[in-house]
Amino acid sequence: MSELDALTLARIQFGFTIAFHILFPAFTIGLASWLAVLELRWLQTRDEQFRDLYRFWLKVFAISFGLGVVSGIPMSFQFGTNWSGYADFTGDVLDPLIAYEVVTAFTVEAGFLGVMLFGWSRVGDRLHFLATCMVALGTLISAFWILSANSWMQTPAGYAIEGGRVVPADWLKIIFNPSFPNRFAHMVMAAYLTTALAIAGMSAYMLLRARRGREAPERQRLARTSLSWAMWFVTVFAPVQAFLGDQQGLAVLDQQPTKLAAIEANWETGRGKPLVLFAWPDAQAEVNRYEVAIPKLGSVILTHSLDGRVPGLKDVPRDERPPIWPVFFSFRIMVALGLLMIALGFWSLWLRYRRRLYDSRAFLIACLAMTPAGFLAVLFGWFTAEIGRQPYVVYGLLRTADAASPVSAASVSTSLALFVVTYLFIFGAGTYYLLKILHRGPQPHEATTGGHTAHRPKRPLSAAEDSPSAPSAPQTGS
User: Fold this and answer.
1) What does the CA dihedral 110, 112, 117, 118 come to, rounded to 10 degrees?
2) Calpha distance 215→227 (Å, rounded)
3) From residue 381, how far is each of 3, 149, 193, 297 by CA, in Å?
4) Given 119, 352, 365, 381, which residue has the most CB atoms within 10 angstroms?
5) What is the DSSP-derived secondary structure letter of residue 102?
6) Which residues are CB-contacts of 343 (< 8 A; sequence separation ≥ 6)?
7) Is the CB of residue 195 less than 8 Å from the CB of residue 27?
8) Are the C-beta atoms of residues 477 and 448 closer than 8 Å to each other?
9) Domain residue spans in the chain?
10) Does the bond joining 257 to the residue before it have cis omega, within 30 degrees of 0?
11) How far, in whole angstroms, is CA 70 from its chain's centroid?
């Protein structure tokens, strides 16, 4: 079999498109809730810094939300073109779950997004806050259905097989399948941490500029507020995410032991297994090269027992094993990023105690460097989960090779090339525009009249919070 046959190319294409797509929902889920918190604080205090921060992050949300929607559309078409076997086998179960997302999440978001983006000057403050909350709720509902569908593919339940297809037998068991609760909590927390680290990085960037005298005092105040809030969240919830990850690991041990064996590059089933910190797994020889391990600690972490039993890859035939090294290294990168998040949070606590949170140059550089950490952790976590269930697309029921469409490698490679060019152009432009907004940063409260900003917007997404009926000339007063 050629390394670039139609199946391999189809997998590359789907992996490429979903890797682009997953970054934007991971960001907007957390960002929508952050906007709700900012607006709530503004309603409680009427402190203009919270509205200034809201306006800035609303622009970022609008662009990210749009890119997320656009990047998700091509995946639906791929099910019919490249993965017709999967669509035919799972359609009776998974199609309704995706439809529930459209009916619930998209309906909520579509109904309130316009009010959230453009309605502050047209509706009351409380109604606008309700719209922000409903959009935040919509992002969580969307995550609920998508994670339910994906988790069912990991741990199918509540189904029967009729005529070579899975059909629903118990919808509650389908929706709340065994791996769903842990995976949903883990993913939502990952989204929130992704947003918090992005906010902290943006704030640190502004404070580093301020050290060179390039930021006004009002903007420094905005940066200090957002950095403090973001780091409180990282400090408290990065350890919570580690606990959720531990619970997910226990679930994988029970539900997908082969995946766990690949994650740990564990070849022989046994008790009191070591924790492999580093190795180069050799799938052909079924050994680990250059292994660095801590005795017994693997069983302690994986089973919560010093003498716990850990499954090995040799328990299953070679054709039932996932690719070892991508799963092994992706998991360790994700864990390393999580540990760095925890360390950053505790560092911020120490600096708060010493009243130097905003003054430590080393800490601000660390926050800036950690800006992409959440996105990377989401990506590598997804690699671990999805590659780890191979060779199945529906674990134990449908092999990936049987899910592919009978199409030629040439047609898939052509569509893949078109996807790459199109995505690089569209998302390159979108990301460039997004980075320009981030570089500009939040602006202090501008001159307003009657609570409305004092200029006419030129671009809807970049001025989503501005009043379309405001006068064009700046005025004094607030």
Assistant:
1) 110
2) 15
3) 25, 17, 14, 22
4) 381
5) I
6) none
7) yes
8) yes
9) 6-255+318-447, 448-478
10) no
11) 16
**pLDDT surpasses 90 at 453:** no
Amino acid code (one letter) for 19: A
Residue 188 has pLDDT above 70, yes or no: yes
The SS3 of residue 446 is coil
DSSP state of 265: T
pLDDT at 451 over 50: no
Q: What is the mean pLDDT of the chain?
A: 87
d(C-alpha 195, C-alpha 183), whole Å = 18
pLDDT at 2: 44
- The amino acid at residue 326 is P
Least-confidence region, from 36-50, 105-119, 414-428, 454-468: 454-468
- Do 434 and 47 touch, CB atoms closer than 8 A? no
460 against 122, higher pLDDT: 122
H-state helical runs in 155-255: 171-175, 180-211, 217-255
DSSP 391: T
The total of other beta-carbon atoms located within 10 Å of residue 388's CB is 25
Could you give the CA distance from residue 434 to residue 78 in angstroms, rounded to a whole number?
A: 28
Phi-psi label, residue 451: left if phi above 0, alpha if psi -120 to 50, beta otherwise: left
Per the CB < 8 A criterion, the answer to whether 175 and 335 are in contact is no
Identity (one letter) of the amino acid at 126? R
Question: Above 70 in pLDDT, residue 461?
Answer: no
Instruction: Name the nearest CA neighbour of 83 among 399, 331, 322.
Output: 399
- How do residues 281-301 score in pLDDT, each as one tens digit? 999 999 999 999 999 999 999
Q: What is the C-alpha radius of gyration for the chain, rounded to an integer number of angstroms?
A: 24
Q: What are phi and psi of 239, to 5 degrees?
A: -65, -35
- Per-residue model confidence (pLDDT) at position 214: 65
- What does residue 395 show for φ and ψ, rounded to 5 degrees? -55, 120
Report yes or no: 138 and 112 within 8 Å, Cβ to Cβ: yes
Which residue, chain included where needed, has tokens 């656009």?
70
Whether pLDDT at 216 is above 90: no
Token pair 């609570």 is found at: 451
Q: Is residue 32 within 8 Å of 61, Cβ to Cβ?
A: yes
- Render the burial of 180-189: b for 16+ CB within 10 Å, e for the rest: bbbbbbbbbb
- Phi-psi group of 295: left, alpha or beta (phi > 0 → left; psi -120 to 50 → alpha; rest → beta): beta
- How far, CA to CA in Å, does 418 sit from each of 72, 80, 408? 16, 17, 16
